[in-house]
Amino acid sequence: MTARPNTSLKSNAFVTIDSPLGRIEIESNGRAVTAVTIEGDGNADYGRLPHAGATGAPDHVLDRAKLELDEYFAGSRREFTVPVEYAGTSFQQDVWVTIANTPFGESLSYGDIADRIGRAGAGRAVGGAVGANPIPIIIGCHRILASNRRITGYSGGSGIATKKQLLALEGISYAD
Asked: How many domains does the chain have?
């Protein structure tokens, strides 16, 4: 996956797709995916689709993202290659790059990420950055668990229920 930090992300194309998680909106600036939103069950603000589930106007980046997501949900894709661009603090970007480099079927803890980015003891701050990930699934923040392998939350779709679906899809075990 090509991940490029970008401070001027103007999304001018989007598409809404159906998935096993429900509807997903993907946004693009014509060069890369800039946002992915998973629709929730209506009980949380974070599960609202920015374009209210409208059909949208796809571009070549969105066509590729849709294909890769379809393959991922079908079990035939383990790595995303569609380019992504995101804006965030340097700390957030360090966290997102670490998440993006976490392979399919593997998981890390918040503390693991803090250690890898040279910020030992910053697990809580890492949790905030994980929750702010603008491109879930493609940047697999669902792969991040507490150090005791428990699920502490998820800010996409229907929250923890969505995270459990993604973990099951990848065969990642967690503690209940």
From this structure: 2
**Do residues 23 and 122 touch, judged by C-beta distance below 8 A?**
no
List the domain range (segments joined by +) for residue 59.
Answer: 3-74
Per-residue pLDDT reduced to its tens digit, 84-141? 999 999 999 999 999 999 999 999 999 999 999 999 999 999 999 999 999 999 999 9
Task: Provide the token pair at 52.
Answer: 């209210």
Q: DSSP string of 8-42?
A: -----EEEEEEETTEEEEEEE-SSSEEEEEE---S
Tell me which residues are annotated as active site: 141
Q: Which of 120, 116, 110, 115 is nearest to 148 (CA)?
A: 110
Any domain includes 31: yes
